[in-house]
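Progress note, sequence design subtask.
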């Protein structure tokens, strides 16, 4: 997107006015009106077009800048299609159900908060959706916490931490794919690089939850047992169901491109599904397009397993294309360049640059309340600066997730914050101090930046 040449050079005050107007439109529409981000972004695009016309920039030029911005996201679009297919194929092969079953098997009363954290992390990674994890198994854990008289705020914090670990590290996650695609790096290279900050944050969080866990000998495990029984009845729990995951890991270690890795793992999963299902070719086509529909009768299990398909990716794909089109206009109008030039003198060192990137992602989350936009706007704003300092783009994508993806649930008026409160019935400000993973991640990424640890040069 940085190949888009600025057609005008606004003053700093003018650039700030445009940015705050756009952010205000999006924040009000999402926070006050409950709109999806697509509508306010579309109106922001219209606002920017009229601003460009007032500046006497030809509409054809503005249109070309939007197309150039959207073109930057086409690689991500194909990856998102394959992610939808992978999720569907992993469900019918039993990979996701088997991972859920294994996760449920480790739940005990001892170290309760740690178990909640670890298990939601496993399930979040398996299904690639933090909000689905919170709305399903997270709600179940809140019921168990009430039965054993555990802290609801601490339990909610552990659920949020685990769910957003999965959202951050899963190859099935929209945000993970988005962060990698924005800076133009391989998906699995991005995930591997994130482990330098994510693993320490995970371990520190697990230790904190262990220290705070209550000393309880037994608890009513009937709810967990019923979920496991429901999973067994699906006939999706098999030892060989883990093979697609192993294939994915092997392909990653062999440094195969994410595009090919997702195809190979999906094909293996579809072949394995034939051993325990009697689906026709028409059924497979329908599932790969529309997703798998679970009908066990158990709401939590059905919510976890009714997922996938190409069509499930349309929301994210439309958001990506609209946001990148808006980004193309912001660059063509010289808004981003003007603001970056103003703060450039403050971003001379690696530590300062990473800190500035992290604070930008946190700021957008706080102002707009949307994690996708925190990734998209931060990535486009700082991509050139990382290039100028000779830093590999995977440093930027890591910071975008460390300070973008995991911060959204900590903002009371954000999309994730509002959803989590409605599901867990615990205020954001109550669980915020105990969402250790979400709090530690941005601290570590800034600290590593100043210490020049795990920073990769080009």
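Output:
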């Amino acid at each position: 997107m940085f190949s888009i040449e600025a057609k005008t050079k606004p003053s700093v005050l003018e650039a700030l006015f445009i940015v705050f107007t756009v952010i205000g439109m999006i924040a009000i529409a999402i926070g006050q009106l409950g709109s999806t981000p697509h509508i306010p972004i579309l109106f922001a695009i219209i606002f920017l077009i009229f601003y460009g016309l007032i500046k006497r920039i030809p509409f054809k030029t503005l249109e070309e800048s939007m197309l150039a911005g959207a073109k930057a996201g086409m690689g991500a679009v194909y990856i998102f299609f394959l992610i939808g297919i992978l999720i569907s194929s992993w469900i019918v092969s039993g990979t996701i159900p088997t991972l859920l079953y294994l996760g449920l098997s480790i739940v005990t009363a001892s170290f309760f908060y740690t178990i909640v954290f670890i298990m939601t992390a496993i399930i979040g990674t398996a299904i690639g959706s933090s909000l689905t994890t919170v709305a399903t198994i997270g709600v179940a854990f809140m019921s168990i916490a009430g039965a054993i008289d555990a802290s609801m705020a601490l339990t909610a914090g552990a659920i949020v931490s685990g769910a957003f670990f999965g959202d951050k590290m899963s190859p099935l996650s929209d945000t993970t794919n988005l962060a990698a695609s924005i800076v133009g790096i391989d998906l699995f290279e991005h995930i591997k690089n994130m482990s330098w900050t994510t693993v320490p944050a995970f371990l520190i969080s697990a230790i904190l939850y262990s220290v705070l866990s209550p000393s309880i000998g037994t608890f009513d495990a009937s709810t967990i047992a019923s979920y496991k029984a429901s999973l067994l009845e699906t006939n999706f729990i098999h030892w060989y169901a883990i093979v697609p995951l192993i294939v994915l890991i092997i392909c990653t270690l062999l440094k195969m491109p994410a595009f090919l890795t997702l195809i190979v793992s999906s094909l293996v999963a579809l072949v394995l599904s034939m051993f325990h299902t009697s689906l026709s070719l028409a059924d497979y086509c329908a599932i790969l397009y529309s997703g798998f529909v679970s009908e066990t009768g158990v709401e939590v299990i059905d919510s976890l397993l009714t997922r996938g398909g190409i069509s499930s990716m349309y929301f994210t794909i439309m958001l990506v294309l609209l946001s990148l089109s808006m980004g193309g206009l912001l660059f063509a109008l010289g808004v981003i360049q003007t603001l970056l030039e103003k703060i450039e003198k403050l971003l001379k060192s690696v530590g300062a640059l990473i800190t500035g990137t992290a604070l930008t992602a946190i700021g957008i989350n706080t102002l707009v309340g949307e994690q996708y936009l925190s990734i998209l706007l931060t990535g486009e704003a700082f991509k050139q600066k990382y290039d100028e300092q000779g830093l590999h783009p995977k440093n930027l994508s890591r910071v975008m997730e460390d300070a973008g993806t995991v911060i959204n649930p900590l903002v009371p008026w954000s999309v994730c914050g509002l959803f989590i409160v409605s599901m867990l019935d615990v205020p954001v400000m109550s669980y915020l101090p105990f969402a250790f993973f979400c709090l530690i991640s941005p601290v570590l990424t800034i600290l590593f930046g100043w210490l020049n640890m795990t920073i990769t040069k080009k």
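The mean pLDDT is 83. Work on this subtask will continue into the next period as scheduled.
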